[in-house]
Each structure stands twice: as structure tokens, then as C-alpha cells.
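Thread: Modeling a multi-component assembly for a lab meeting

Hi all, long-time lurker, first post. My supervisor asked me to bring a structural picture of a complex we are working on to next week's group meeting, and I have zero experience with this. I have the sequence lines for every component (1531 residues in total). Could someone generate the structure of the whole assembly? Inputs are pasted exactly as I received them:
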Amino acid sequence: MQNLPGGKSRLLLAISVAAALLVGALLYGQYGRAQASIKIGVLHSLSGTMASSETPLVDAVRLAVEEINQSGGANSRHVEMIVADCRSDAGYCAQQAEKLIAQDGVQALFGCWTSSCRNAVKTVVEKHRHLLFYPLQYEGLEQSHDIVYTGAAPNQQIIPMALWALRHKGKRFYLIGSDYVFPRTANLIAKDVLLAQGGQLLGERYVPLGENGLATAVREIAALSPDFVLNTLNGDSNLHFFRALREAGIIAEKTPVFSTSITEVGLAAMGADLAAGHYAAWNYFQSVDGDENRAFVARFRQRFGRERVLDNPMAASYTGVKMWADAVRSQGSTDLVLLKTVLAQQTLLAPQGIVAVDYETRHLWQKVFIGKARTDGQFEIVWQSAQPVRPAPFPIYRSRAEWLDILQELAGAKQ
Amino acid sequence: MSWRAKDISLAWRFMIWFVVVALLPLASFGYLSLRQNEEALRGETLGRMSRLADKKTLQIKTYLDERSQNVQLLARSRLADESMAELSRAYARHRAGSAEYRRAAKLFDKDFAAYIGEGGDTQFYDVFLITPQGEIILTHKHEADFATNLVDGPYRDTQLAQVFRESLMTMDSRISDFEHYAPSNSPAAFVSAPIIREGKLLGVVAMQLDTQHIYRVAMDSSGLGATGETPLGKLTGAGEAVFVAPLRRDPQAALQRRIDLNTTAVPMRHALAGERGSGVEIDYSGRQVVAAWRYLPELRWGMVVKMDADEAFAPIRRQRENLLKILLALTMLGGFAAFYFGRQMVMRLRNFAQSADEIAGGSLNKRVDEYGRDELGALARAFNRMAKNLQVLYRTLEDRVEERTRELNTANEQLQKEMHERERIDGLIRQENNFRKEMVDSLPGIFYMLDSSGQFLMWNRNLESVLHCGAEEIVHSHALDFFEGGDIGLVRAKIHEAFEIGDACTEAVLRAKNGAKIPYYFSGRRIERNGEQVLVGLGIDITERKRAEDALRVAAATFETHEAILITDANANIIRVNRAFTEITGYLPEEVLGKNPSILSSGRQDKAFYAAMWQQLLNSGTWTGEIWDRRKSGQIYPKWLTITAIRGEQGPTTGYVAIFSDITARKQAEEEIRNLAFYDALTKLPNRRLLLDRFHLALSVSARSRNYGAVLFLDMDKFKTLNDTMGHDYGDLMLIEVARRIQPCVREVDTVARLGGDEFVVLIEEVGMNAEEVSQKVAPIAEKIRAALALPYLLREHEYHSSPSIGVCLYYGNKEPVEVLLKRADLAMYQAKDAGRNAVRFFDPAMQHAVETHAALEADLRRALPNRELQLYYQIQVDNEHRPLGAEALARWKHPLRGMVSPVQFIPVAEESSLILDIGNWVLDTACRQLALWGKREETRGLELAVNVSAQQFRRHDFVETIAAAIRAHEVNPASLKLELTESVVLSDVADVVAKMHALKVLGVKLSLDDFGTGYSSLSYLKQLPLDQIKIDQSFVRDIATDPNDAIMVRTIIDLAQNFRLNVIAEGVETASQLGFLKQNGCMAYQGYLFGKPVAIEEFEMLLGKLQGIEPGKSS
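Re: Modeling a multi-component assembly
Sure thing. I ran the full set together rather than chain by chain. Output:
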């Protein structure tokens, strides 16, 4: 009986400890459980001939992912990027895509540069009904429920560029390109629109990808002296082409070259003064005016170095990741089917201005810029569309069936 | 004195503890759950706003898209071509005002008017043709803009000029923003598209849109409650925007009212920054709103869909108030309960204290109640033991005192015995007197003796005590003094009577001196006493008897209640029943009296039940329970029965009383309550709870059976309008009708459920193993439901029109949770609404695509014949010498947009509908016309034309007549027409097929069996058919040179044909080696690419011409 007060206080202590534990457990169950991270896959070539082009895109994706995680992740989950090296080989890239989807369980893929890589990965993505963000401008004539195309469709790059050249430089034009499906299709479209408005084709030449013997073409250009040249060369050939032009004494003031694949990063690599005075068209230039872009450039340089430059494919990669994260946040889940329905109507204030996914085609509405290369490796914007341009992967003046026939013929011709 | 816990009563302490320990957690729990509900409501409302925003953006997108498609179609039409060519010529030569121009323009006027649309179908305001140089050479409305130049003219800064320039720059269709357009003096937008012919740009066509449709989308506030609205805005400068459509609160806002984005209008600021999201923010009018914001890239507009937070969150406010009320009530109730229990315990303790007190005061036999096994019970037992011990101790003491007293008494008695003897004699005398008095006193009741005047002479003690009078008073009283009212006369008469006759008796009420009135029975007799007549009598108290009589009367009245009462004797024979018994059972008393109550039993309860009942009756004397009995009418009904055994005072049972009431109504009410939990009260359909239950089950079944199922989510369009305009009664009637209409559209096993409001869900289980096939099966079911629900509703003689929107989602296995599947179907339903309501949409884009492609193809195919899109192609058939024998006629479809559509695609679609009949007739007709033409020329006269006949066509009862009519109409030689039947045709109804084929033979038509060998026709059957020719299928011919099996097959077919004396033709001959093999084995006719593709008639006739120059054998 004497120890009753002691027993009573011990009992009280035990009860309060038990209550505290219970409350703690409940709170832990509610908020404290560690959430698994959301994985995304990045498919770019870090080795082989495409490495120099594609490596910067991984940085752009990384910047976007880091920003997403700093602002609380997606649905309070950490976003983790798994980078796969495609080794500049489309088939290998498709295998990597399969692995990322099937083994690593990624929720989305970001990547590819060439059309052949996209086509190979497309098969895998569509088989799994998965999700791919493709950041490059391309020849169009394609659309897929499972791909969001953040680069330009033909009517957002090649068509306005060709027609601007026609209005401002003259009617006589010359086409040069690498020998694969993008340049051939792009030039076909360019011919369509130029000839329709009174253009005059002087010559057309294709060289194998990576070829450096461009002397014949340059001699032809020197002889024909066109009002402008439309250049769809890709990769290293550009360096050889501009060098040969310089050597042949062809100057930008007299025979300007309009390129589809020359970016700020490319200029830095081959020496800015070689292409100075020539033109390129994109949906983004580092020199685009606007608070959003200035902040983007500053953030990127702070993260990856003051000397780094940005270009359209990088901005498009960055935009893709941001758009994905916005969709995941607004849907509140990573259910792919639901996510895709949200993505089909997604909009975003991106570095290049407001972009919006087109409900029909899953390409982006975006502005078009034509820039003139300066000696400092940046572009001076000489024309821009008044508004974002609706993407038309299948230009409207032919039916879709006709385009697909033509595409098949082009593929056949190449074989 | 300090105020300590121990000073407070236990009951109060219980109450305080209860409040602290029980109610604090309850309050925190309530708070948490309220918070969660608030989160959920917020999420749900935001989700609703988002869905509505998506729906509205899609509506605008779709509208603009369709307009853009219209303009593109116009740009590609011949009308654009021709008018551009004609008018630019006329315009350039004669200018706009000239008669030449007007004449040229008039030609196209009607066609352009058709594009603009008329009446309620007006899609456009105006149309423009613009040359590449910017001259507007045609408008429909002829406003001020006509014949101006868009490059340097007065309207070069308008949206029209802008889309013109952009269409040239992008060679693409463009849509402008809505802005004030001076020539029309109203807001307008423009859609343009370039006109390109043979690679040349001819100009640009543009069309003008007005704001009607967009305003309609903006003003549609369905689903937005009382305060919701949809502002649309566009940027006019940094930090400033303007509304572009009317507001619900301000119909004049369009292009007038400005929005300051810096201070308020947070949702619009987000929208115009290109963001897509939702949240609770401050809107342009400073209110807090629940909003979703969207950016419309087509128009560079921001859209906000919102409703006031006050309205949206009203349910939570109510919930909070309710929670507070409940907490308060619980606190009071719980407090009282605790106080009450505490008090009960305290009462016992007090009782103990009191008893202890009494024992201390001397009442040693005081005990306390010992019930309960708890501590108080133990205390009570201990207390009682203590009291008992005390008592025993006390008694021992008393016994000893008594013993001493007895010893003293014995001595005393000895002394007194002598005194007693002396007194005995006196005693005897006194005893005698006393004896008499005792005798009188010991008489029961009262005894009296009256003299003839009614004065009391003698009485017993009872009289005194009854009357409450002393002897003194009675001596001075008269007998009649103790009665009142009528009794006085009565008693006087009776006394008189007794004196007269000798005796009398009566009942009368005696009034005692203290006022008590007691009924008595009096009897009196006249006797002689001391020579005097006196009356002696007795009075007996009859209070008890009177009371018994009253009780009997009450019992008789009680017997007739609304509950049935049945009384039996000890042997359970019915001895009495009341009226209610007759009402409930239908039996009249005379029908049941003397019988056993078992005549009422329904047989629903078994023997064991009755045995248990009797057992309890015998043990406890009473039984209560529910029992099913049968009425006289045979109807079985439940009743609530109480049986009580009547026991005599000595114990043996003298009978039983059964009381029961009919509880049918109560039972029904219980049933109703059970249904409510799982079924919707209004429509009697399963409710959400039951649906989820069944859905879970369906998913596990699907996982096991590997079958797909589908879930349909539907709601009624404009239902809210009906509710708002006609009242909820009508809405309810409609819902009942909807439920009634859905059910016949699905199988018995499928679940039709109502989720609430006008939302219904149909669960179709176990449809099939293949997703594509399943969606093709589900689509017609959904369509059937849609059609059934779109019929007019007759609601109390008002006709009302509505239609459903249906979303469909397939499920497979149990991987995806029910909630996700329902959400998907819901989403699909919203897509159906977006598609203009009254529609069915699949969630899975691939499924939707498959269903749509199928439907689109069918719709296009329906138009193909009238639009002359079908063509007949001819593939040549040759003989062994490569001479042309004729051709097979094959239908080809050239779709204006799709291009050539393969027969493999469109023939199955045609066969599913009845279109194949029209197509078949057209083929037959065209072929006969061609045969007639050939018949007129010498070199083509001998050619045969083979026409394919589909199963549907052949099965028509008038098939033979159709063929005969065609032959007659075109005057064709019947022998040149060859009908190709497939095995599927001839394998159906044997008798009918053989009869029809013979009839055709009689006409003179030739019959060929197509793709022979691929089906399962038996030889004996084949023998019965009057065939002319067998066709070897191309699948055998293809591998003839490489696959020995196919080679044997072909050889067998040729042998067979020769045995039956049939002609044989091989199709799909593509190489010389195939031809060689066939020829070697005796084949006689051929068809295939080696000789010619199917081609149009012109080309075919060229081929015929060429073949005539070829010598036999040279071409291979």
C-alpha cells in the first residue's frame, strides 16, 4: 500500500509514453514514409560520331531534373535520371530503350537525335505504349500517340526559312544536303514551296553523311552563283562545306547559305567566323530576348560553366523535361495513359516563349526565328513569326496518304 | 480548507476523467478527419475545374480546327481553282466594278454561299479570295475591304492581312486572333489557306469567323454552380489584359473591360504566362475563387474556369458546424453517463455506511445486499459476515441471562400456587361471563342486537372498530345513524321487515364515524329476549367481493384490444379469442373454439422450433418470439407472439394466453432498410457501394478467365437544365425512365448502377479475349444504350428531349484499381461531351481510333456510290494460247482523301452492313453495261465477264430475278456473264443454293466456284452443284513451284475438275514457271499479273488490242 503513489505515477508515465509512440507511428505512417524516386531514361550518344552533338543535351536534361528536385520533386518524389549511351547506333539505342523500360522501369524517355534513332526507338516505345520526348527538328511526316516532339516540324523551320530567303535574297536557289531521309524530305518540301512561289532550282546535290569531299558541289555553286543556298548537311560535313566555300572565295554577302543544322554549339565547334554572315532558322536562339531566356542562360552557365553556349536542341530537351514534370504534377500520378491525356493539352512558359502541345499532332506550337550568324558565335535575329506557329508534320498541300507514299519512295530511293 | 481532489464526489471525478480521457482524442480525431475531408473536397473541386477547363479548351480547339479544315478543303476544291483563275482574269482586265467581273463573280456566288452555310448552319461570316500580290478579288458580303490590297491598302494592318502574309510565309493554314475588324464593324477572326495547283501558288483563300461560338463556350456555366464563370482574356501590354468574351457577371466585358494583372486576377496572370494549372486564388474582382487556368495557343488567349471558394467550400463549413454540435452532445451525454455510473457506486457505498451505522445502533440483524462479484460485492459479503458474528456473540450472552431468570421463576411459582387456588373459584365465574362476551366478540363480521326502535342493545368489538366508535357513543346511537342516502330507507324497511316476518337481509354501505364507507351484507333475525322482541344480526364486509366484480368488468373490456388474444385450457384447446384475432387471422370465433392453435401454423417452423417453445413455456411460464403463421386465406404472415401460462394459486397450469400482432408491415420496413444500403432508392438499381463490390469481383474473374470486360460511364446531357426548369420531380421521373431503358440493352448478368445524380455506370463482364474484338462488340451495346436514351421522354405528359454521353473503358485482369478504371471511363465520357454530346467515346485512343476508323470508313463508303467514287477494274483471263477469254470485274474505290482504298479494307465493312447489296448491284449493272458494249463490236463479242457474288447478295430471295432483270435491261448474252461464288456462299442452305443455281443455269448464266480448296466443301456436295468452272485459289498457285504440298493440291483440283467435266482456271499467276506447271498439269485458263493487273476499262481495252498482236507462247 505504501508504494501506491509511486506505482500510480509510473503507470501514468507508461500511458503517456505509449500515447506518444502511437501518435508518432500514426504521423510517420501519414507523412514520413520514404517515397521511391521516379525514374526517367535519357537516351543520347555519349560516344561515336554523334557524341559531340548529343552530350550537351544530357546537360540540359540534367539542369531540368535538378531544378525539378529543388522545387520539391514530382508529386513529392525525387526524380532520378538514368543516362544510357546510345553509341551513335540506332539499333543499340533501341535495345537501351527496351532495357530502360522493361528493367529499370522508367516513367518516360528523353532522347534521340537522328531520324533513324527515333524510328528505332519509336518501335520500342509504341510496343510498350510508353512515352518519348524527342527534342530535334526533323522532316515531319510522322506522328505518334507515344511521342511528344519538342523540335520543329517542317512548317516551323524549313518552310519559313526558304520563303524568307526567296523574298529577301532572290529566286535562284541551290540545294545541298547529306544523303539520308531528313535532308531529302526537307529539300523536297523546300522545293515544293519555293517553286510554288516562283523560285528557280539551279542544282541539287547530296553527299553521304560524314563525307568531306564537297569540292564538286562548291565548284558548282561558284559556277552557278545562286541567289542563296539551302543547306541541309548534317554533322562534320558542315565544317568541310563552309571551309570549301571560304577557299573558293564565296562570301556570305553575295551567296548566303541557309542551314537547318547549324547551331550556336556547332558554330563554337567549327569556329564562328567561318559561317559568319550566313543564316539559320530555329525555334530558339541563345540571343532570344526575354526574362525567361536570360534566366535560363544564367542558370545553365552557373551550373555548367561560363563558357558554355546553348542552342535549340538543348532548350527543347529542357522544355520536354519541364513539360513532363508539370504534367505529372497536375495529374498527380504517373499512370502513363492518364499522363498522355494531360500532356496532349500541356502548355509551358519556356525559354523560347510560351509553347503548347498540339492536341492533334503532339508537336509543339512555337515561334520561328531566322538568325544571321555573328562572328561571336551568336545569331542576330532577322525575322521572327508574330505568334507561335501551329505544327504541321504533314504540310497541308498534300494529303497524308500522298506524303506517306513519297516518304516510302524516298526510303526506297536511298536503298 | 484547501480544495483537493479527494474532497470532490466520486461521481464528479468520474465525469471529469471521462471528458479528459475519452473526449480529447475524439475531438482531435474529428479535427483530423475534417481536415482530410477539406483536402478531398478541395482536390475534387480543383479536379472538376480542371476537367471543365480541358473540356472548354478542347471545344474551342475543335471549333477552330474544324474551321481550318473547312478552309483547307475549300483551298483544295475545284471551286477555288476555277474561281481564282476566272476572277483574277476578270479582275485584272476589267477591275471590280465592271459588268464582266460581276458576271464572272455571279457564276460562283452560289457555291461560296454554300461554304459559308445558311440559316442556323452558318459557319462563317465571309469568304475572301486573295491573289499572291494581296488583291482581294472576291468577297461574299462586299464590304469595304473588297478590291483593296492587303500589302499596301487601307487594311494592311488587319488580322486578315496578317493571316494572308503568314499563309504565304508558311504555305500553311493560319488562324488569327479575334479583333475589331473595321469593314464589318465587329470582332472577327480569319482563317486562311494557300491555293496551290500543280505546284504553283494561285493565291490565298480566307474566311471570316464571328464570335458566336466562342462566346457560347465562354458563357456555358454548366457544372460551375451559382458563382462560376469562364473569363477569356488576352494580353494588351505588360501587366495588362482585356477580356475577349462576355462574363457571366458582366455581359458587356468583351473587348471592353481591362484586367490589371499586377494586383489581382492571379489565375488569368498564370494562364496568360502559358501555364496550365489550378488552385485557390484571388480573381479579377478580388474574390477568392477555386480556379483552373489554361493557355489557348491558337488564339494566344488565357482561359480561367472558376467558382467562388465560398460556394465550393460550403459543405465543409456545414460539416464543421455539425462536428461541433456532435462533440458538444457527446460531451454532455458522456458526462452524464459517467456521473450516473459513479453515483450508482456511491449509493451502494452510502448504503454500507448506513447499515454499519444501524448495526452500531443495535439492530444486529441488519444486512446489506451481496450481489455482484466486484469489489463492492466482496465488501458487502465481508460486512455481512461481520454482522452475523456480532449477532451470534450477542445471542450467547442473552441465553445465559435467560437461564438465570428461569431458575428464579421456578422458586416464585411455588409460592404463588396457593394464591392461585384461592382465586380459581372467582375466576370460574368471571370466566363464564367472559366466555359469553368472547363468543360474541369472536363472531366474524359485526354483531348487533337492536330493540324495536332500532337502538343498540348489544354488539361485539368488531362493530366498535368498524364504526370507529366507543361503546358510549354506540349506546346513544340509532342503527340508521350509520347509513346515508338511499341506504337509510332501505335499512329501515329491512329492520321493519325483520320484526314483521322474522328475518331479513340486505346489502348496504356502512358509514363509519371517521368517514370510511364499507359495503356490508347484513342479516337479521327476530328473537325474544326477556319477553321483549329484539333483533339480532350479523354484518359481513363484502369489499373484496365488490372489488372482484369490478376487476372482472375491467378484464372483459381489456380483452378487446387491437392485439389478437387467444386463450386455451391446459390441454391447449382454444376456449376464447377476441375480435382482433378474427381481424388478423380471418377465423371467426366459432371456427376455432375447441380446436388446437396448430391450425394457424404455416409449416415454416420445424418440430424442433415448437419443441423448444414448449420447453421454455413449461420452464418459465412464458414465451416470446417471432413466428410465421397462415391466415384463413392461406396467406403466410409474420407475427410477434407472446404466450403466458395461466397458473392456479396452487401451481398447476390451468390454461394459456397467447397475444400476438401482425408484423408484416414492420418486416417490409426492415427489408426496405436493407435494400437502401445496396440499392438506389429512386431507381432500384445497385448503388455505388454494390457497384464497387461487383466491379472488384469482376476484375478477379477477368484475371482468372483472361477475358476483357468493359465499364461504361454515362450521364444525361442537359439533365441539370431539366432539374432547374421543371423541378426535381421531373428529374427523378427521368432518372427512373433512364434506368428502365438501360436495362434491356444489356445482358441479365451485367450490372447497371446509379452512382448518384444523373451518373450511371454499366459493367459489362466477360466479353472476349481480344481487346480490338471486344471494343467492336462493346461499341454497338454502348450505341444501343445511347440510342435508347436519346429517344424523347414523356414525363407526366411533357415531352422532353435529352441524350446521354457515354465513356467506355475496357478492363483486363485486376492489375488496375477500380478507381482508375472508373476515372478513365469518366474521362472518356467527358471526351464524348466534348465531341458534342450524345456520343460514345472509348478511353483508349487506339480502341477509339479502331471504332472510329471503322465507322468513318462505313460512312464514307455509304457516300462512295452516289459520289461515283467506285470504279470497276478488269483483270484479263486468258486461255492456253494466251488468247483473251474475258475478264474478272473487280470493284475499286478511289477515296478523294484517302486515295485508293484496298478492297481487303472496304469489302468486309460493306459486308457487315447492307452496303454490299448496293455495291453488288452496282457491279452487276456496270458489268452488264460493259458486256453490252462489247457485244456490239466484233472483236470483243466473245468475251466473258466474271462478277463476284457475296453471300448476302446470293441469299436474297430475289437474287435470280435481279440477275435476269440486269440481263434483260442491258440485252446481254447470258452466256457471257459469269457469276463467281465463294465456298462460303454455297456452303449455307443446301436446298436453296442448289435451287437458285439451277435457276441461274436456266437463265444461261455461267457459274464459277471461287477460291476452291480453301474451304471445306465435300465432294459429294460439289457434285450436286451445276457449276461450269472451278477457280484455283491464288494461295495455292503462289507456291506451286516451291511447295510440293501446294503442287499436289493443284494437281488434285485439276483432276477433280476434269472428272466432273468442269472448266478450271488458275488465278494469281505471276511467273512463267507457275504457268508452266499449270499448263503441264492440264489447266486451261489463267488470270494474274503475268497477263495483266486489274485496270480501268480504257487501259483494259488497250491491253486487248495489244494481245491480239502477240503470237501464242511468245509472252512466257
